[in-house]
Amino acid sequence: MHPHALAPVCRITYLRFMEELNPIQKLDLVLNYFKKHNKIFHNLYEVFQNLNGITVTGIAKNEEPKVIALEDIDMAIGKINKDGYLYAKLDTPPLGSGTAITHYKINFDGFIFIGYEATKRISDDENTRLENLEKHQKESDENMNTLTLFLVVIGAMTVVIELVKFWRDSQCCNCH
Asked: Fewer CB within 10 Å: C terminus or N terminus of the chain?
């Protein structure tokens, strides 16, 4: 049975909610699910049903469930697993009784991970800080170049004045 067939009442909410979540928020939604349910392994369909507020009968558990597509949950679990935050356990059924199902459980690294959105925010803050630092460094370099030019001009003027004094003094001494 297709998972979306379980929630016909959730279709409108699904469309609205999916437009509101960006990929990073979807990752955090799935990651937080595993943090909240950290004692047992869950397969993709259990995560789908629980995140969408769907019971086995297809009736919503709450009045306005937040719905996330099965494909998005599958991609999020894949990414979170690839990043090393989940244990994966393959349950192989007896011969001829169905397909193998992978179950997932959060590991310690996943449990203490602050989340993808927080990590992105920290990264964005760090990038902004680096950009500001580069901007200030460039301004400082320009100011240093201006000061250096000013000192070179002052130094050259001092040399010229001293040469003129020396030439004038030598001209006066030659007259006598």
From this structure: C
List beta partners, residue 89: 103
**Residue 30 burial (CB < 10 Å; 0-12/13-18/19+)?**
buried
Q: What is the pLDDT of residue 36?
A: 84
pTM listed for this prediction: 0.51
> 3-state SS of the chain?
CCHHHHCHHHHHHHHHHHHHCCHHHHHHHHHHHHHHCCCCCEEHHHHHHHHCCECCCCCECCCCCCCCCHHHHHHHHHHHHHCCCEEEEEECCCCCCCCCEEEEEECHHHHHCCCHHHHHHHHHHHHHHHHHHHHHHHHHHHHHHHHHHHHHHHHHHHHHHHHHHHHHHHHHHHHC
pLDDT, tens only, 4-28: 443 333 333 443 444 577 888 888 8
